[in-house]
Batch of 3 targets.
Target 1
Amino acid sequence: MNDTVTTPKTRTKTKVERPKLHKVILINDDYTPREFVTMVLKAEFRMTEDQAYKVMITAHKLGACVVAVFTKDVAETKATRATDAGRAKGYPLLFTTEPEE
Ligand code: TYC
């Protein structure tokens, strides 16, 4: 008969954390046409004309506007693609990203 009592000395607790979301931020400038900014927002961020116009005009008035939040990779890819769309036309249009608190 084996009377050995085996009490585990340690426990493993697996902790799963949600990936931090990152904001895509539209920065205002004096040169990119309003219609172009609105068009890029619709194409890259799947916004309606109304949503895109509101984000564009907010950045225009306040200097910047949060467009949407995504996981880090997606936020960076979309910001780069949207910025490149402006650059391809010679516009200084800029989208940046930053982690949410
Ligand atoms: N300020 C630009 C203009 O008057 C329009 C614009 C809006 C540009 C928002 C960039 O993020 C921007 N033509």
Note: Residues 26-30, 32-34, 37, 56, 59-60, 93 surround L-tyrosinamide (CB under 6 Å).
Target 2
Amino acid sequence: MSGIVEAAKAHPAPEGLVYTYGTAGFRTKAEVLDSVLTRVGLVAALRSRSLKGKWIGVMITASHNPPEDNGVKLVEPLGNMLQEEWEVISTKMSNKATPEDVHEYYKEIVAQFKIDLESPARVVVARDTRASGAHLLGCVQDGLKAAGAEVKDFGYFTTPQLHYVVRCLNTQGTKDAYGEPTEKGYYEKFGAAFKTALKGKKPSGSLTVDCANGVGGPKLTELIKHLPPKEEALEIHVINDNVVKPEALNVDCGADFVKTNQRAPPSSKAGPGDRCCSLDGDADRIVYYFKDSSNVFRLLDGDRIATLVASFLGDQVRLAGLADSLKIGVVQTAYANGAATQYVIEHLKLKVDCTPTGVKHLHHAAEKLDVGVYFEANGHGTVIFSPDTLDTIAKHEPKNTGQAEALDILRACINLINQSVGDALSDMLLVEVVLAHKNWGPQEWLSTYTDLPNRLLKVIVNDRKIFETTDAERKLVKPEGVQTAIDKEVQKVRQGRSFARASGTEDAVRVYAEAATKAEAEDLARKVAEIVK
Ligand code: 16G
Ligand code: ZN
């Protein structure tokens, strides 16, 4: 056990810094992460032992953040986000001052969970293409080694690929086996499902994919080798896939750039009507977009993907004769455009749940549904099918060829959707399948409803911790009186809606406002920002 003190000593904690395992794990400037990574290695080993040696994932990434940042998150055995209790443990561990404190706390966790230190600990590690990744991997390895863990290092992976192999490793040989726990297994699974789900339909035109100069670039290039040839199916143009120059990561490209700036990456050469999409730096987020016939940029964000996919799955469930046994629901956050919510309820006639921001909240809500379609407006999301639903779909006997066809498509979609976590590459293939079946281009997709004009503002405040919300972040309970003041402003505009919440990733409060017109939305956002300041 003195190995633990040694490991912690080799990677001392910088003085005066406080770390938090937040919505996306630990994330900050890479240069202050050494001690955190070593300690995460220790915690990962203990988490695995507390689950009788199940494989736990460690992903080193800072997603859409700038190149000089990095971060780390832990993945549970079925590919889910880390349990909250262990988030707290990770935070505590990362803030222990001395190597001896680290060792003491390690022993405390062992006692708390009655962990047998002789039992196996199994951990999978992977990283995105950031320059700091290799060094930080070494820090994690030191922690894992000190804790006596068995380690599989997959090198460069997208975040969803890591979630995938973790789930595969833990389900291997069971009735829930998810696939081959290898990179090749990933491509083969999703490539084959794409071909089956298309059922001979060919997506129109081509698709340009901006890979944020991140790990999604080389991985998409690999995936393409496992897709049907472009003459038969989808023609993909890969752009912004320069991982040789790590300082280019997420700079003027990627899903976050496109969503935040509401414009295509400057490098884009797409013409009017050309279908484009952007991944983020670790390929767990995706947004679509195109230029319309008047050359105006049009975004098809996570809300649009959710409505498209929910409508398609709804149709297939109905056509397969399963409408009475399966209920589809959509899970959104408060950031979902009001028009999208209304479209799902009134047009698709599906249930909508709203949860706080952050994938884990949406995922948990979706798990309660037969078929849960969840997406954040920023492009994080997937679809999950409950075990009973999978069973129902597997056992269903079609009564005619129409039902048989829909059932085939539905089964292929289940294989095509990465159910361990939102996956930009898998989501992209799913969108392409849906568009091909509907025979839609981006304009038809956009025409399903009209977004309400909206505005997002970042407000710097003295102390964001005083902002407490309820009702899935849609209402402030503290500071007192602020919500009443916001409500008053909302009343003044047509179709007004606004909320303010403390960011989980930045030291700021975010204000969202929407209204019938752009001017009203902008005005409302400004007024609410004044109130929270
Ligand atoms: C994290 C979350 C993302 C959320 C964002 C909100 C995950 C994997 N990532 O990036 O889902 O949209 O935080 O950031 O859960 P904010 O709290 O700063 O608005
Ligand atoms: Zn990401």
Note: The chain has four domains: 2-156, 186-300, 302-420, 454-532.
Target 3
Amino acid sequence: MNLTIAGTGYVGLVAGVCFAHVGHTVTCVDIDQKKVELLRSGVSPIYEENLEAFLKEGIASDLLHFTTDYRSAYASAEAIFIGVGTPEQSDGSANLKYVATVARQIAESVTHDCLVVVKSTVPVGTNDKVEQFIKDSLINDVCVEVASNPEFLAQGTAVHDMMHAARIIIGVESKNAESVLRSIYAPFNLPIVAVKRRSAEMSKYAANDFLALKISYMNDLANLCELVGADIEDVAKGMAYDERIGSRFLQAGIGYGGSCFPKDTKALEYLAKQHGYNLKTVGAAVAVNTSQRTVLFKKACNRMITFNGIKVAVLGLAFKAGTDDLRESPALYNIPLLLEQGADITAFDPVAEENCKKQFNFSMTYSPTVAETLQGAQICFIFTDWKEIKETAPEEFKRLMRTPLVYDGRNLFDPAAMKAAGVEYYSIGR
Ligand code: NAD
């Protein structure tokens, strides 16, 4: 089929390359000229495993194209997927201005009947508004329907998640919309759950916020474990055997980050409030996460007399391993606190270093290896679960650091092994 994708971020680009991979003809539109030029040359502006290989394959097979010219890209597409950002606003609500711009551009451009598919995460009822807005603004005499198709991929495993999704949720109000979406997804051979648009929109928040809740629950328990002498890792091990609970997302740590959980929890809380309802569970997940982000810093403040002039090793900047995305990363909440107190920071991240340099003007040094970062450090903070960090031998902390004092926000090491190696080691809930 002839598909167009609006937005070449984590969601739009991954959808574009995967649709081309299964044989659709895809045009990806972005307003960022530099990004489009980079993509045309086969280089991915974001890091995701296999993304660049799929990108090159799509370009070589002439099934995948990139443009800033939205008019020609939308004009005769059979389906247009909207994958632009819906960032958090200061009141917690989702900012729909990018979605609205694309809707207007579609209305001005389409010359054939088409299905508009909202992949961006949007508050319940947005699809109705997008459909009405497009219908009201159409220039040509064509029929445009809107369907919801929330995306469930996780950064770090985005291409794999798109190709092997647990399910595809489609929110449709007509047989035609359902049949177009079923045809698009047929080559993926994945379970399709067809529901009404509002239920599809809600499913995305329901799933993300449930995962956020699970993480915050474990972090809340982890803090209690420390007070009562239990080990959250052992507790989680025991819980994981229970099929009603499941074994994933039981990892205690320094809190969730990224572009989705923080904003999607707040957006659902906001939506509930708008309807006069207090969504207490999600509110609690947000509150726990906010304090969890700085739990290690607070612990370290109790141990250190000052950070002024202290050589600090920061291991990990990205919000999780496998991505170069820094959005809402716990590291970003801790680095300013340390700098404010005069810390002399050296930071390591295998892929997010460039993004950090570009986006933030932190007065700190970057280092290409864990060993170099630890060299001479007086305290170390671990913020991301990168393999390169996890695979560092406990003895290396002892050998390289001036004082082997480690605060681990990802529970990457066995406390007994760290102790045996002579490292003073603090982690979460143990
Ligand atoms: P992103 O910020 O990485 O990318 C958005 C892209 O849209 C940018 O490249 C931007 O230049 C482009 N854009 C903005 N206006 C445009 C326009 N008028 N026309 C064409 N392109 C335009 O965003 P993302 O992380 O891919 O997220 C997109 C949506 O998907 C959000 O609603 C998000 O909540 C949701 N989502 C994200 C993830 C994730 O892991 N990142 C997972 C599931 C769902």
Note: The chain is about 45% helix and 15% strand.
